[in-house]
Write a structure and sequence with these properties.
heterodimer; A: mainly beta; 4-stranded antiparallel beta sheet
Chain lengths: ~110, ~120
């Protein structure tokens, strides 16, 4: 069955540091992948998504992710984080041929020191 | 930007009581979902709904849960007899198309505390 795993549970960085959050998926067929962000006290928001084409996907707020098929990875990156990036980040993948639901990874909590 | 709205934002209920969480999906969307997130844990799929019926549900979504679209605009999640372990943030979401080319929009969540 398709699944996603996030290995970093909590990441602490200083402002202006570079960020990379890991996401690995298990499905070998057609792959669609998402990154969602949840700011404290707020709802889930889509950061970016990959469906096909250029494996380097640009999202909102300066985030990007690279789909590497050979590594089954879709890591999220940002060259210089800000304090406002403090949030929980979830990698997600649609499940099943009907794409009637998506499943989320366990999430990575990002804390930025001002 | 269009948004999914949920009420209540927070509800405290006694164990064994019935709870109804309400959602107003984006008006032209056709696919609706409920997810939940127990404190400190991952976001879990509960159920998806299309064309006035459940299209898929998880093992969490047992007989204590039900969903309904009573009036063409609201989408509700009912928990018949709440248990302590039902305490969680419940997220409603909607999607304009079956395929995930469209973005799934999430509401801000309803925080349910069962005491």
């Amino acid at each position: 069955a398709q699944s996603v795993s996030q290995h970093n549970h909590h990441v602490i960085l200083s402002e202006a540091a570079s960020l990379e959050l890991g996401c690995n998926y298990s499905y070998g067929g057609t792959v669609n992948l998402f990154w969602y962000v949840q700011y404290p006290g707020q709802h889930l928001q889509l950061l970016l998504k990959y469906f096909s084409g250029d494996p380097l996907v640009k999202g909102i707020k300066g985030f990007e992710a690279e789909f590497i098929k050979s590594k089954f990875s879709f890591n999220l990156r940002k060259p210089s984080v800000q304090w406002s990036d403090t949030a929980e980040y979830f990698c997600a993948v649609p499940l099943g041929s009907s794409a009637s639901k998506i499943i989320f990874g366990s999430g990575t909590r990002l804390s930025i020191r001002p | 930007e269009p948004e999914v709205t949920q009420t209540p934002s927070h509800q405290v209920t006694q164990m064994g009581q019935e709870v109804i969480l309400r959602c107003v999906p984006i008006s032209n969307h056709l696919y609706f979902y409920w997810y939940r997130q127990i404190l400190g844990q991952k976001v879990e799929f509960l159920v998806s709904f299309y064309n006035n019926e459940i299209s898929e549900k998880s093992e969490i979504f047992d007989d204590q849960f039900s969903v309904e679209r009573p009036d063409g605009s609201n989408f509700t999640l009912k928990i018949r007899s709440t248990k302590l372990e039902d305490s969680a943030m419940y997220f409603c979401a909607s999607n304009g198309q079956r395929e995930f080319g469209n973005t799934i929009y999430f509401g801000e969540g309803s925080w349910l505390t069962v005491v």
